[in-house]
Each structure stands twice: as structure tokens, then as C-alpha cells.
Amino acid sequence: MTNYSKKDCQKFIDQYKSLMESSMTLRDIYENFTTIHADKTCCYYFDEDDKIKSYTYARYKYEVWSLAKRLSSLLSGIPAGSIVALKLKNSPMWPLMFWAILMTGHPVLLIAANLQHDNTENLLKDAKAMAIIANEEDPYSIPSYRINNVRNTEEDHSFTANWADEVLFCSSGTTGNIKIMVMNGQNLCHQIAEAANIPLHSTTLMHPGKIRILAMIPLHHVFGFVAVFLWFSFYGKALVYPNSSASSDLMKAIKKGKCTHIFSVPLFWDSVAQQLNRMVAQQKEKRQEMVKNMIAYNTHQISKEQAGFGGTRFFNNALKKKLFGKQVEYCISGGGYLLPRTASIINGIGYPLYNGYGMTEVGVSSVEQSKKVENRLLNSIGRPFSGIEYKIVPSEHSSNPNEGELYIKGGTIHCEEIIEGKRRKTPLVDGFFPTGDIATCDKSGRYYIKGRIKDTIIGSNGENVYPDEIESYFRDVKHINNLAVFGIHEENNEKIVMVCDLENNVTTDQLPSIKGDIDSINATLPNEKRISHVYVYKKALPIANNMKVKRFVLQKELKSNPENFLSFDGKSLAKPTISFDGYDQKEVKEVMDKIRKLFSKTLYLPEFKIEPNSSWAEDLGGDSMSYITMVQELNDNFKVNIPTDKYGKLLTVEDFTKEILDIRKDGKESKKNSEK
Question: Mean pLDDT for the chain?
Fold first, then answer.
């Protein structure tokens, strides 16, 4: 890329000044960037033939007006000022519909595209929304319109823009307390103005040249909305939309769309690092050594000479070409704990990965901006942006006086919030918002996030223990897809529990080996950080909107539904629901094992995830067609004829085991009677 001076970048960033001198509304933001950047490309996307398409901000403005005019007709019966929800996946249509709703005089409630129907209904009710734009077949309790409904509406009526000035965000739900945060134009104008001090530290995050940023993070989420959509639109940059969140579509969008900026959550960067590790492990020893030297050199641990710079540089370029391409200039991880190992690998490849911080209630408030890789590897969230103030309120369970809850003050804090349908002004403490995050600050003024207060475990020595840190020690254990650590109260103490989601191809025979790897790592940890119990979760771990595991859900489920958890000997934590007293126990085991194998074959699930009392549909995801096929195979295998009136009533391995044993028993008794 062209090297822009700080002066050039500062002059470019100063566009925000005219915005701050305006009435500071959402309309001002929109009119500013669609006018100034009319001739610039605003987005890139892929058509059905995988050809890349684009259009300018001038067309963007025309499309918004056209949609708003049509939408105003559909919403004519809904009073101005009433909330309209937007529930769409990322696409070029998302920003157009967002601005169109505002232009018709309706505040926008942003909802995750994949949120379940019942949960969406609850949000609509709490927010008192009067309509929803969603590409779904199922109807809602309020008027629902699909994109095509809006596009196909006649626009032969007069229309005057009547701008609303509020955006409503939903909390991620990682702690179970669902809130709706209201931000107005003033909050979001301040969010743009925060960029003022960036050129003093970084001339690559935002600069006058061409920038293409991957629109991967859902735009309903505050990270995606602020850091990708709002900020880069305001400065006339182009968003690149992947066709889906599948890794193949993401990679295609990055390479074919020539993305210069990639912002995502730690889960994405962890998967990239793991993919690289697997790729390297398949290489010859010499290549593995080159990768090791490349990472060490790029992170300033060894010299050019020690790295064998010529060969390493050639291999580094080849690796970049295979991964994201050489055009990537800037990467950010936000929304969670970034593993130090992941930061080292991504930066070691040569992609500058920075750690950032934000939350739904306050927007995006800081990112590490140092050009020095050593500072990026500290895993700090940097210093607060211009106009934002941080302070730390000490924690009673920490021996570190510089550790405590992070409080934030600034114009970006949401102005109101809705909890259980009741709207109120945002409660502040001396103008500060308590974030609920534990943080520390070093002598240079850099901040570090340790974890959430509600997730914090009180260790055996009375000190705070942070689940994110403990999880990081076990991320590389083979065959673990995902994991979560949390505390449970047991015998007047808080014990540390780890729950794992294993790969589907894992067999029962492999469980002891996986448990052995976990135990080996656990033995190296201090006593207060050691895991007391390790379980396998039979389902996929519950993920919140910000792609973090919902630890509180697992905590509750471990207490209320232990049958969904397995110990590493493959046994369920719950007792069998059907008694087999009076039956030949050897025969019971034999029949049960055969049925479990058939369940496994039909459902494409590992046997250890199929417990005796796992329900066919509810727990295992089976459908009616595969159920009938499976019953027919049971009949053939066991030489029985399960009555059709029991189809759909027999749902578990236990159910079928008892039914088959009873049929066998009845058959034996009938034979005896006939012999008499």
C-alpha cells in the first residue's frame, strides 16, 4: 500500500468535524457520506455465477430512497416513531434497508438473522415493535415483510423523508440478562468522532487510499455495525460481502474481493491458527522448521540470519497467497479473549492482528494501535479512543491493586435501555458505565481484559480465576471442537468445570486418550486453576450473538439436565430412566449395544453421544423418515416385528431395548404354551 503520512491521514479523518458541528443525527451521518463519496465504490458482492459485482455510493443513495418510498406505503398504517425490526443476514441489502427504515420515520431494532422465532417474538414484544423486515416464511404476531414484498410494492405515491434518530441493539445474552440498548444519532456521531486520534498512532487502520473491508461480523452486532459498517461507510470505503459464513465463501470474498481489512471475533482467528497448524503438521520437517523460523522472525524473536531470511521470505509469501493473499493490511480481533498463541501465529504469518474492545452498551472504545509487533503480542486492548475515558474500580478478590472492574465514560454510551419491556435512562455512576469486565492497566496506559465478573471463579486461595485464561491452556487438545470453563458450587467451595464439544468422528475408544491429554495439561497448572471435573457435551455448545459460549446456560443445564453430559468413560451423568430388573443383564447390554450402533449409523453420530435415554428427535436430531428406516432395520436385525402403533412412541435406545426384550419374552412364552 501507499505510505500515507500522519498529516495526510489526520486531514482525511477530520471529515468528522463537520459532522460534530451539525445537529448530530443519523440523517447527518447519512447525508454526509453519501454526498462526499458519491463516486466511490461502496460495496462488492458475488452473483449466482460467482462473478464479483459492485456499485457506488451514488447508486446506494438512490436505492435507499427507492426502498424508503416503497416501504412508506407498506408501513402507512404504522405511526411515525414506532419501532420497525430488521432481521437479515449480511448482504448489500442490509445497509440499504437499514437507512430506508430510518428514512420512513421509524427507529430500527437490529435482530440476529439466526435468532429463533420464539426469541425474536420476545424481543419484538419487549421493544414494542410494530413491524419486522425478515426473509422468513413463518409469520410473526406483527406485520412481517420480506425484501421482495418491499421491492415489488408500487412507488406511485408522494413521499417525504421523515427521519427517525434511534437504533436499538440487543445484548449478546452470554450472561442470560437480555437487554435492548437504545443509541441515538448523537451517540453514533461520537462513535465516528472517536477516530480523531487514530492517525497519531496508526496510518493503516484508516487512511485516504483504497480500503476493502470484509463484512463478516453480523451487522446487527455492535462490533460489525460500528467498526465495519458505520465507520468505513462514513469514510467512503468499500464493504465486501461474502455469500455466507462458510469458510470457503469467506476465503473467496477475502481473495477475490481483495480485502485489505479483516475484522472478526477470536473464534475465527483461533480457527485460522488451528488450520495453519494442521497444514504445517502435514509438511516435511524442513518446511515445519521454516514456518517456525518465519513466525519467530516476524515476531522479532530471531534475526534475519537465524531465520534463513531468503527461503523463509519466499515461503512466507507462498503461505500468504494460499491463506488470505498479500493485500491484507490490517486485522482486528474483538468481542472476546484472544489466545496469545493465536496472536503470535497470525502476526507471525505477517498479518498485523490487533486486539480491540467494545460492548453493546458503549460501542467500540479502543484497539491496540502500535506498529510494534511486541506490543500487539501483549494482548492489550490499547488505550481508549478520543473522547473516551477508562477507569478501574478495584476488585475485592484480587491481590493486584490495578485490577478491577472497567468503567467507561463518553458520548458513545447508550442513552436508554429496555429491560422486560420497560424503558429507562441508562444508569451511570458519576457519569461512568460499569462494564462488568475485569481489567488491568500497565504503566504505559494500555488496558487488558481478564474476563467477565459474572464468569469469574473464586479459586481455592481466594483469588480470582478467569475462565478465558484456563480455556486457553486446552485449546490445542486434539479432537476438541470447542470448550467452556465455568464454576459450580460443591461442598462449600467453587469447583472448576470444563465442558467439551468433541469432533463427530471421535470413537468411544479415543475418549481415554483425550482425557489423558487434558489431565497432562491440568497437572501443570497451579492448584487454584486446576479443573475438577471434565465432561463431554452431547450437543453443540450454546453460542451467543457475539460467538462466545453461553457459560450460564451450561451451568444451569448441568444441574437440571445432567443426561446431556457424559463423563470421559462414556457414561451419562444421569441414571437410566427405565429399570431392567428381572431381565438377563447380559442380554440387555447386548441388545442395547446393537441398537446404539444402529442409531449411530442412521444419525451419523458417534456412539458415545447416544445415551440410553437420548431422545431420537429432541436430543439426537433425527427425523421421521430416518426413524422409519431405522425401525425397519431393527426388525430385520433382531427378527422382530415392532407394532406400527408404537412408531413415534419409542424414542430412545432404552425404549427400543425394552420393546425388543418384551417381544422376545412374549415369543418364548407363546412357544412354551404351544408346546404344552
Answer: 90
